[in-house]
Amino acid sequence: MDHIELRALGHWFEGRSQRGERKTIHLFDNLNLTVRAGRSHAILGPSGAGKSSLLAMIAALERPKAGEVAIQLDGKVADAISLRRRSGFVFQQFHLLPELDALGNVALPLRLRGDGEAREKARHWLDRVGLSARAAHRPNQLSGGEQQRLAIARAFVAEPAFVFADEPTGNLDQHTAAYIGELLFGCVQEQGSALVLVTHSNTLSRMADCRHQLSGGRLELLA
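and the corresponding structure tokens:
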């Protein structure tokens, strides 16, 4: 089964105290977690606890200072590049390309891989997130909720094994956030992907199979 295993992960960086003195700031130490295919994980915690850094390390976008991130895909040990190819990403700031229309943004990950059916698959996912009628619109012509729906379509278009989401509802009003949460988890279940989600929202986190609290350098499983 596809999985990502964090083994004794530790991370810190050099900063300065209020008096300007250099100091080492520890985000977490000896952290362990296994993310398996088909399971969803929500990571909660106060600002500055290191949630986004942890997410980046699970996704193999950053390397920890200590410990190991072990990846298995299709029954074999895999590297960071292979994981990124099998992953989708959803961010708070959307990260859409302003020069491309909605269809072009969704199709882009497949076009970069040389997929000859990129536009057809992109149309399917635009329809899945309810944006078929907005296919020719650029991101600045879409509302915040529509842009996040577009980002979700882009994340799932390549049939990812893992999806990583960093505060996907953080910039949205309560009603739109609830809709986006339902859509995101619906796509995860439909696709059979694993989901790792960083959020401040208790409502969104409760939709996950597992909830974790990152605080004081420790990651604890919540009931």
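(Above: one complete record from the training split.) The helical segments are 51-58, 80-85, 102-111, 118-128, 144-156, 174-191, 202-205.
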